[in-house]
Amino acid sequence: MKRKVRLKDGSDVVIRPLRKEDIDRSHAFFQALPPEDRAYLRVDVTKREIVKRRIQTMKSCGVKRLVAVVDDRIVADGALELEAPGWKEHMVELRLIVARPFQRKGLGMLMARELYLLAVKENVEEVIVKMMRPQIGAHRIFKRLGFREKAMLPEYVKDMGGKRQDLIVMRCNLEAMWKELEVYLAESDWQRVR
Ligand SMILES: CC(C)(COP(=O)(O)OP(=O)(O)OC[C@H]1O[C@@H](n2cnc3c(N)ncnc32)[C@H](O)[C@@H]1OP(=O)(O)O)[C@@H](O)C(=O)NCCC(=O)NCCS
What we know:
By secondary structure, this protein is an alpha+beta fold. The protein has one domain (3-193): 3-Layer(aba) Sandwich (Aminopeptidase). It is built from 6 helices and 8 strands; from the N terminus they run ββαααβββαβαββα. The protein has helices spanning 23-31, 35-38, 48-56, 107-121, 136-144, 174-187, and strands spanning 3-6, 12-17, 63-70, 73-82, 91-98, 126-132, 148-158, 164-173. It has an 8-stranded mixed sheet with strand order 1-2-3-4-5-6-8-7, sandwiched between helices. Helix 1 crosses helix 3 (48-56). The longest helix is centred in the middle third of the chain and has 15 residues, at 107-121. The model has no long low-confidence stretch (mean pLDDT 94). Coenzyme A binds next to strand 5, helix 4, strand 6 and helix 5.
């Protein structure tokens, strides 16, 4: 799967699966994130070893990863974390991060669409996202995608600075997510030139 998409500012981006050869590109992407966006990552992906492990264990951990690429540089990273067979196998966790210079150009929504299509292939029914309270952009985009806040664990996780943060869990079923995606993409003038 490889898809060329056009952003609101007219720039073209390729969305494709993350590959084994992407270790340095992925490392560079995470290193370039501003501290405000990096603070809420689950693990310190500014360390090359962690990026390498993240890529090497994708298959065994049931994780599907997509990246958006411009001029051979990764500018967004998205993931679907599938559950092992069992009581949560109908659920998938979605994660998404867009490089600052590419935010608010519709790339998050276009990545969400590709992740949605992957989720459909995997026959899952529902998607969850987890975020820390200060992640306002994340809360807004997922609300726009039909997700609703279903749980909040006060001061449950620590950000990269060691500060305790509330963990927010939002959920959405796949059908509802598609409806919102369709509305957003249909309303966007910039999508009509694609
Ligand atoms: C959350 C994130 C992925 C959004 O990506 P993006 O490419 O900027 O999102 P889009 O441009 O597709 O935005 C789609 C809509 O979401 C909403 N939105 C996104 N970011 C927003 C923000 N910072 N403030 C308010 N609304 C926002 C808007 O409704 C926007 O539509 P509009 O620009 O037409 O008004 C990006 O801000 C990011 O990477 N943040 C840091 C990491 C993070 O918190 N990831 C989520 C963890 S799961």
